[in-house]
Amino acid sequence: MFLSYAKEDVGRVKQIYADLKAAGHQPWMDTYDLKPGQDWKAALQLAISKCDAALICLSNNSVSKTGYVQVELREFFEQRKRRPEGSIFVIPARLEPCTVPASMADLHYADLFEAGGWDRVVASLSEVRQGSRFLLSKEKRAAIFRFSQK
Length: 150
Description:
This protein is an alpha/beta fold. The protein has one domain: Rossmann fold. The protein is built from six helices and four strands. It has a four-stranded parallel beta sheet with strand order 1-2-3-4. Helix 3 packs parallel to helix 5. It is globular.
């Protein structure tokens, strides 16, 4: 899972990263997963293309900011188009009361500053995991079927 956020929110997102790791998830966050000397744009593109979900951490900083956070959002929505209809991929999570961008108007979001907000994110991630296992299992069955057709 890819964590997208404004740099000004790095402290709060580091805690989310730690909580996800503790819960058995494999989050990707530039602070921890980019290595010195690595082409960061290429690494971000690769991480976005391989992730099974994107947790978009929304705050007054991120929704009003121009820059690479907006590039990431556009790429996530492109990736979302390639996913099965109705599947969860982009998960908006508000870190504080803020306006949700119009590009996410059709997505339900979680408020991490409200009671139960984190539980809602975890429930979405569980559904993502189940969907990923189902798709992987389906791909394996198809590969076995193709293999046995010789």
